[in-house]
Please model this.
Amino acid sequence: MATYVIGDIHGCYEEFQRLLERIDFDPGTDRLWHTGDLVNGGPCSEATLRWFMEHQEVATTVLGNHDLHLLAVARGVQTKSDRDNFDDILAASDAAELIDWLRHQPLMVRHGEHLLVHAGLLPQWSVDQAEEGAKEIEEMLRSSRPEQVLGQMYGNRPARLRDVKTVEGRWRMIINALTRMRVLRRDGALDFGYKSTYDEIPDDRMAWFDADRPRWLGEQIYCGHWSALGFFRNDRIIALDTGCRWGGALTAVRREDQEVFQVESKVTDKD
Model:
């Protein structure tokens, strides 16, 4: 029995299936974790989402920012952009069931010292605090009125915990940290403008996981979201978004021995 953690699939269903073959995934004994963003990028968002729904007993995904965006569009609180390509889900005969399943997925998974999250954890958060914030948003999404939180999640402010003044601001801060964060300014503020590589981070910014003495230190965090970071592993995190949607690769790591597996993307449109 093994547990495999797979980076952002983004609707790249063919590559996902090839990766399952590459790791010889056995749903009878193995388990799967996914770093979020099942949809929106590759050509097969519906097939990807449906596979996870059908294998929910053995496969776990956290919500990524693109998954949340799909929920917001489906619930009518956000307009679909020209770059969104999850029409296959919205047009499915069981679209309501697919969307309902997606909104019941977690934002963070904790298993012993192993944590699964889409983007990252604020350095000011302990694991318990991060989990508490994730559960607050999850309860809102699973309620009869998920629009309350979906309609408030867009925007880059507040950027620091000390600037949170309202309930809506707290929701946005939690969602932005868990699903959109890449770098922080030296004063701890979230900065969403930087999307390039680790080596090119300006001196006045830092990767979220490089913060000095984060309160979550000591946990093994698996994450995705930052495709320009690529596969990145140190004593704090294992980042697994290797840009399959941009023509890169789809990556998995076996949790038990940290062996890495990859398949190359067949996506040709890298715009």
User: Anything to note?
Assistant: The chain has one domain: 3-264. The mean pLDDT is 97. Residues 127-141 form the longest helix (15 residues). The radius of gyration is 17 Å.
